[in-house]
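Tip: read the tokens left to right.
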């Protein structure tokens, strides 16, 4: 049931599209839902859902989006660096990583639960991306200024980064 997520997106974006139409359009385009753990090998652990029209799930993708995911996957610098490298391993050569983090926090709330996360700085995020040999195309601070009503989470700061894996290079983690 995606109805609550679509209602929230519609509210935040000020969309004129009805949440039910947004959900139907998204479901029509979705090919699969994967279980991914950036702290494990292989990174893709399982397939939760595969559409009847999806013949094969690729090992790498043109675009990988990690929105508030990587800093939530662990609490140490090593875990964060591993998470970045694992996310990058899913990108095709010439593909893109769209990453967003909330710098300077060590925990977050969802609903009535609190979770720990890696306290990252803008510099650490950019250094990990550079260490993964990505080309930084854009880095924007203060890009997330929205209120998430259900969790009462107010985000007035954030770091959004768009990076590209160089064309013609295979990622070192994938080499035999």
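Filled-in amino acids:
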């Amino acid at each position: 049931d995606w109805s609550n997520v679509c209602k929230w997106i519609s509210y935040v974006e000020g969309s004129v599209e009805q949440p039910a139409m947004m959900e139907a359009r998204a479901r029509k385009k979705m090919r699969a839902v994967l279980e991914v753990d950036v702290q494990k090998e292989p990174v893709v652990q399982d397939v939760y859902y595969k559409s009847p029209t999806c013949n094969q799930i690729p090992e790498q993708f043109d675009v990988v989006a990690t929105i508030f995911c990587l800093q939530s996957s662990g609490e140490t610098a090593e875990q964060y660096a591993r998470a970045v490298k694992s996310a990058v391993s899913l990108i095709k050569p010439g593909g893109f990583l769209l990453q967003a983090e909330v710098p300077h926090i060590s925990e977050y709330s969802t609903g009535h639960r609190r979770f720990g996360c890696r306290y990252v700085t803008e510099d650490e995020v950019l250094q990990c991306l550079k260490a993964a040999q990505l080309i930084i195309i854009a880095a924007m601070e203060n890009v997330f200024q929205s209120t998430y009503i259900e969790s009462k989470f107010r985000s007035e700061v954030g770091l959004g980064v768009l990076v590209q894996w160089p064309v013609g290079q295979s990622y070192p983690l994938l080499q035999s």
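The longest strand covers residues 91-101. Confidence is low (pLDDT under 50) at residues 144-157, 170-176.
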